[in-house]
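Supplementary Note 3. Input sequence used for the single-chain structure prediction.
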Amino acid sequence: MKSALIALLLLSSFYANAGSALIPEWRQHNYVHTCINISNISSSDVGVTVKLYKQDGSLYTGSITGEGAVNTEFTLSAQNTIQMCVPASASNFMGFGSITGRAIDSSVTDGFLVARAVISDVVSKNKWQSVTINGGKAF
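The predicted structure, written as discrete structure tokens, is reproduced below.
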């Protein structure tokens, strides 16, 4: 466990410098879903790839609601925000993930994405947890 945490911290700093950030937690079960908001704060379109890993380390390949996609690149227009959700399901998954941004216009070199996730109870609607991604900083 200790070595996994050290590896996660090292990967976190690596991804932050490479136009990527880690999603430290997501969950899905009967009454819980996770929504990820991703904003392109640049003046240029960005290619975005979101990968979600289940607790056993395998890729999540289930459904997503909202905009975007998992495990394949999609384009996020300049100055736009999307919301993608892992819907509540009889499946009982949890894990971590990553978001990678790639400037489509090679002249854009600074951080161009910010993101945040929310894990919430879809029944009572009054139980939720905010998941900070990359410390709230652009990547």
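The helical segments are 2-17. The chain has a mean pLDDT of 88.
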